[in-house]
Design brief:
The structure holds two protein chains of two kinds. Chain A is built from eight helices and 22 strands. Chain A is an alpha+beta fold. In chain A, the strands form four sheets. Chain A has a six-stranded mixed sheet, with helices on both faces. Chain A has a six-stranded antiparallel sheet with strand order 14-13-12-15-21-22, with no helix packed on it. In chain A, helix 2 crosses helix 3 and helix 3 packs across helix 4. The model of chain A has no long low-confidence stretch (mean pLDDT 89). The longest helix of chain B has 36 residues. Classes of the chains: A alpha+beta, B mainly alpha.
Chain lengths: 383, 612
């Protein structure tokens, strides 16, 4: 099979413009996650791909095959797109057993009874639920229903598997199990997967690529690491990462070779090579900017070390949580959060030194909200 | 670029685009069904309505001699003038209108508070014996209102009718004003429509979380204050709706008013209208039915304006919220006794008298063995105990047998078709929620609901009492077909609402999942929708079935002897000197209805969802 291309897809519900010029390419074998808050168009995009919604504008290709050509009012039927969909609600047919649910699509394809049996059992086996094959959906737990839904979707060996928030109805533990399950499934079958979620942890842990949605548009497409280290704008930075990224207001001046940022944390100079070249920002004129610093990038020392970029801070509060400790710090008027692995004790109002790594900081133009300086994704030297 | 994102893009015309669009629309059976349904609804509801309105403005053959120089079909205001501005106006319009309004007013005034209080006691208080009482309170709603009128007559009939009732037989002089006319009509209708308020208000009360009341208690309010300041305002929309619906229904009701009013020439709009339509000038009858429709739909729209949403007079389903009962302490037992007495007077007694009367030789002649016989059931004229008897006992009466067959035939065919259409309309309006065709279907289907049964059949009478479409549709008057048609269409609103409720439970995603698996539309319907809709379909079917089986108002205008149904036959017999046979038929219908409700219940039907 082949890559899937969405070109200039627009979708309206009445006057409501829910998808705005969506362009997206999904390579063969990708695990592409459509990520975004609710109501941003990610599920609609999935439904457009599946054929359940017809966009008013745009083209969709699967390899060389035209699937959607809105100009010619051509929309391939969902069943001819060689894909399958797992619904958020699972949409298991309540009057059929697990076996019958999985077998339905194969019966429609008029496979022989023997083939159907074989393929259903193999799908159930893959999802490790063979023993529940004669149960009705209401006799299964949420996690088991989920597995039946996935088994039903993979039984027809689709080239493309669409998953619409499949884990959102599961409890926290099952969710982690199912994440592992889906990742294995992707690896074993090699099927292209498009996965919709609002949970950035799911997106970061499972995907090969993430498309970040914002108000009906795609804000950014990239690998999880790219999205995490260099969110394209303030909203994206705010959305991705838990605990959320620290924003610190500052003043920036770009003189053509170097970006100088002054804030409560002091002054930082960033070389031109780290800057995003296709963004707008004034030259030789001071402008408002925002520094983005991930909490895990902040190191805390109790004594001033010889390393540079250390700044004296006051502990505002400390929250030990077993595997990690969250420390709120203040420097002047600026407040930010640091996270440390393991249990650490700090007193309230204790003075500490925060070591910040300028190369790991993002800088955003406050006026446009856009990223102007990349953070480096290289591993920090081990301490 | 930003513009492109803002504006809807108009695609240039091309044949390929047109071909694909055409294929998208026609190739989807759903669209075809929608189109077919809309055409069907339009021609069965909108066209007949406008035909009748047109009839009130055009000269009919019967009036040629009254309107000099006119041709058949000429435009005329004769009928409206006759109705609204002629010397007869006060007798044919104002007086019946006043009667209708008086009856509507008093029925509402009594039945709504009665039903609402009963609902509160049954839902929110700790009165004992709820399960039994709850069932008994609802039974009157299952009994057709004209049956109740027969019971009333069995008790109060006096010499004006020829045969005596229970009280006259005991030697009590029953005056006409008590036996017949407004007082009797109001009492009988109240006994019917209180259950209506009961069902609506108890539904609403059930959805009120008792924590709201408990919060009031914590704030220090006493029980009366809680009731007045918290509970009552919360169920007020339901109470208002019940009031409006009761007015609308009691104004439009025919059977009770005809049974209890016609004997002393006490006419209401519905009975007056029927006289005009079956005699002449028919145009005046049509004009009156338009007035009735305006009156009934006006009140319903007023209700929507006041209460807001159309759904508000649906009984609101329980949300399963926690509900703690209110302790009514020592008032418990006196109230229980009152309810029990009420039930005896309203239900047990009349039914008992009705049953006993069917066994009596002389009505009003007491229950001594010498006055009892099985004649009304199985007697034959040659062995009749009285010379005045006009018919065989019902089981030996060919008229009865024919009416029974007619009723069964009508009920079965009509309710199957109605329930089937209802499921489809429900499917269209739920799947087309928010789309134009979904809304249009809902609106079309809703129209018959706005019309009283008699007025609705007047429309069909106007439409089909002469050949239409140049003879392609022959005159249907006097045919089973016409009665079938009117029964089906009148029950569309109810059936499609039960269909919508049913389809609402079947998530669209279940179908979409099958769509993706490659199942065609019909296969989806067959494999997914029908199996899941089965129980809802059967319960909807049973409720329509019962409603059609007991219907009188709707068919009374269209009746010809060959098509008599049981309820119409009972109505005819009750006017004769032999009410025993009418009683026997009423009992048969009662038994039949109770059995059907039991069956419907087994399929999860909720009597609260049926319309009286």
């Amino acid at each position: 099979m082949s890559r899937i291309e969405l070109q200039h897809i627009d979708k309206f519900y009445g006057e409501n413009h829910v998808l705005r010029d969506i362009n997206l390419t999904i390579e063969d074998g990708d695990f592409m996650t459509l990520l975004g808050p609710s109501g941003c168009g990610k599920t609609t995009t999935l439904r457009v791909i599946s054929g359940l919604e017809k966009p008013q504008n745009g083209v969709m290709m699967m390899g060389d095959r035209v699937i959607i050509d809105a100009e010619k009012a051509f929309y391939e039927a969902p069943s001819k797109r060689n894909l399958n969909l797992v619904f958020q609600s699972y949409a298991l047919w309540p009057h059929m057993t697990a076996f019958e649910n999985v077998a339905f699509g194969l019966q429609i394809k008029k496979l022989s009874k023997h083939d159907i049996e074989e393929r259903v059992m193999s799908a159930l086996h893959k999802m490790r639920i063979e023993e529940f094959r004669n149960r009705y959906p209401n006799e299964l737990s949420g996690g088991q229903q989920q597995r039946v839904a996935i088994a039903r979707a993979i039984a027809t060996s689709p080239k493309l598997l669409l998953l619409d928030e499949p884990l959102s109805n599961l409890d926290a533990r099952l969710r982690i199990d199912m994440r592992a399950e889906l990742k294995r499934l992707h690896r074993e079958t090699g099927t292209t997967i498009i996965y919709v979620t609002h949970d950035q942890v799911e997106a970061l842990t499972m995907s090969t690529k993430i498309a970040l949605f914002k108000k009906g548009e795609i804000a950014q497409v990239g690998t999880p690491l790219e999205l995490y280290t260099n969110p394209i704008d303030l909203a994206a930075a705010d959305f991705i990462g838990n605990p959320r990224i620290n924003f610190i207001d500052g003043k920036a001046l770009f003189d053509g070779s170097e970006l100088r940022v002054t804030s409560e944390l002091g002054e930082y100079r960033f070389p031109k090579t780290a800057m995003k070249t296709d963004e707008e920002y004034p030259e030789n004129k001071e402008f408002d900017c925002v520094l983005g610093i991930r909490p895990e990038m902040v190191e805390i020392e109790t004594e001033e070390g010889e390393a540079g970029h250390s700044v004296q801070a006051t502990v505002y509060a400390s929250q030990p949580a077993g595997s990690e400790t969250l420390i709120s710090l203040t420097v002047g008027k600026a407040e930010f959060l640091a996270i440390q692995i393991g249990l650490n004790e700090y007193d309230i109002n204790q003075n500490v030194f925060a070591i910040l790594h300028p190369s790991r900081m993002n800088v955003y133009n406050k006026e446009t909200g856009r990223l102007i300086k990349y953070a480096s994704a290289k591993r920090l030297k081990a301490r | 670029m930003p513009n492109r994102k803002q504006l809807k893009h108009k695609h240039p015309f091309s044949w390929e685009r047109f071909k694909n669009q055409f294929r998208n629309v026609i190739g989807n059976p759903f669209n075809v069904i929608v189109m077919f349904s809309l055409i069907l609804l339009f021609s069965l509801i909108v066209i007949p309505l406008f035909t009748m309105i047109g009839n009130t403005f055009s000269v009919a053959k019967a009036e040629l001699r009254n309107i000099p120089g006119a041709q058949i079909g000429d435009f005329t205001l004769f009928y409206w003038k006759y109705l609204l501005a002629s010397p007869l106006t006060s007798a044919i319009l104002w007086e019946p209108l006043l009667h209708s309004l008086t009856i509507g007013f008093f029925v509402t005034l009594i039945s709504v508070p009665l039903g609402a209080s009963l609902a509160w006691l049954m839902v929110r208080s700790d009165i004992p014996g709820k399960k039994l009482l709850g069932m008994l309170i609802i039974i009157p709603y299952m009994i057709p209102s004209w049956c109740k009128a027969l019971s009333w007559l069995a008790v109060f009939r006096n010499s004006t009718s020829g045969s005596l009732g229970l009280l006259t037989g005991l030697g009590l002089a029953v005056p006409d004003w008590l036996a017949y006319g407004p007082f009797a009509i109001i009492c009988v209708m109240t006994m019917h429509y209180y259950a209506f308020s009961y069902i609506m208000v108890s539904g609403s009360l059930r959805s009120v979380n008792s924590e709201l009341e408990e919060m009031g208690e914590i704030q220090g309010a006493n029980k009366i204050q809680i009731l007045r300041k918290i509970t009552f305002p919360l169920v007020l929309p339901a109470v208002l709706s019940a009031a409006i619906m009761t007015i609308s229904k009691s104004i439009g009701s025919y059977g009770v008013a005809a049974n209890l009013g016609n004997r002393i020439s006490y006419y209401v709009l519905a009975t007056r209208m029927k006289e005009f339509i079956n005699d002449s000038p028919k145009g005046v009858g049509y004009a009156m039915s338009i007035l009735m429709i305006l009156l009934a739909s006006g009140t319903i729209f007023a209700n929507q304006k006041m209460v807001g949403v159309r759904k508000s007079y649906a009984t609101i389903g329980g949300k399963g919220t926690r509900s703690n009962l209110m302790h009514i302490g020592h008032a418990k037992y006196p109230l229980l006794v009152m309810i029990a007495l009420f039930l005896v007077v309203a239900m047990v007694m009349p039914t008992f008298v009705l049953v006993m009367e069917s066994f009596q030789i002389y009505t009003g002649g007491g229950y001594g063995l010498e006055n009892l016989s099985l004649y009304a059931w199985i007697g034959t004229l040659d062995k009749a105990p009285l010379e005045s008897y006009a018919y065989n006992g019902i089981f030996r009466n060919t008229e009865f047998v024919r009416a029974l067959l007619n009723t069964v035939k009508l009920s079965i065919i009509a309710s199957i078709l109605t329930a089937f259409c209802g499921q489809f309309f429900g499917y269209i309006s739920t799947r087309g929620r928010g789309k134009w065709y979904g809304r249009l279907t809902e609106q079309f289907v809703f129209i018959p609901y706005l019309m009283p049964g008699v007025a609705f059949s007047a429309i069909y009478f106007a439409m089909f009492s002469q050949p239409r479409l140049g003879g392609i549709i022959p005159s249907l008057y006097g045919t089973f077909m016409l009665i079938l048609l009117v029964s089906i269409v009148k029950h569309f609103p109810f059936a499609s609402r039960s269909g919508s409720a049913n389809m609402m439970q079947i998530s669209v995603e279940l179908e979409e999942a099958a769509d993706i698996a490659g199942a065609s539309f019909w296969r989806r319907i067959r494999r997914i929708v029908i199996p899941l809709a089965k129980n809802g379909f059967i319960s909807g079917f049973m409720l329509v079935f019962i409603s059609i089986a007991k219907e009188l108002d709707l068919i009374v205008i269209l009746m010809t002897p060959a098509n008599y149904t049981l309820s119409f036959l009972a109505f005819e017999y009750s006017k004769s000197l032999m009410p025993q046979c009418a009683d026997a038929i009423a009992i048969i219908i009662l038994l039949f209805i109770l059995v059907c409700y039991r069956i419907a219940n087994a399929f999860g039907a909720d009597i609260g969802k049926s319309w009286g």
